[in-house]
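ok so I'm stuck.
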Amino acid sequence: MVTECFHMETIKVISAISVFEKVAKNKSFSAAATELGVSKAYVSKLITGLEDEFGERLFIRSTRKVKLTFLGEDLFEKCQAPLDALNSIREGLLNRSPSPKGMFKVSVAGAFGEEYLAPILFEMAKLYPDLKIDISFSTRNVDLLDENVDVAIRVGELQDSNLYARKISSRREYICASKKFFKANGEPKSPRELAEFNCLVGVGDSWSFNIKKKVQRVKVSGNLRSDNGRVLLKAALDHIGLVKLPDVYVKEYLDNGQLISILDQYVVKEIPIWAVTHSKKKSSTNLKHFLDLLENHLDKEK
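replied:
not stuck anymore, here's the structure
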């Protein structure tokens, strides 16, 4: 709180000194007010505030003109360089290049990141050579602020937070295994029967299903666990157990008959995919270009 108050007071003083400089240059409160687009009363209030702060007058006022006092002349001389520097910074920011550059860090997970997001980031790397892209693959929910992540791609239900999320796509998941596995072990007819089968477990110990029009979680277990989807896929193809994976992993093998999908009537049909950011807006040039490219790419995929 003390730091915030200090910063607010500093901003007020800078604003007042900027107004003081305009009055000094124009030698007129009215002319300074006109240039700044504010009222003469507002200008007078800020100058009076500065004079109260310093304990001395900055201007000698008359009905026709204003003249700097000794303190006013000293302040006018000393404030020129800092105000010029601030104006230069402002101009630089307003006229900055619209092209992405600098560091851009993205947190993704799994095959969706590999198949859909990586190519978009490759395209950005080719289009914008001044952009340095950091692609981090992780199944955990990273802390965007602590880890300097610009955008994280997350799947499914989101935890409550102060971050902002926009839905960018959705995916479907399948429960499947090989013909050989089903021939040797039989086939579960309901989610509850999964407890009797060897399930290849990913990050969590339960799978979601639509049961009686409600999403319910069913606990599963097995003799192999991995946080890598491709490892689980290979295990299923090697007849070790049942697996639950997104379409991007298993669609090819379902189509060619190497894997067989079961319990389709219970599986949640659409799982949302989110882009999670610090701000509701596309607040940086890098983020704006990435989200625009992502939205265009996913629209073409529909």
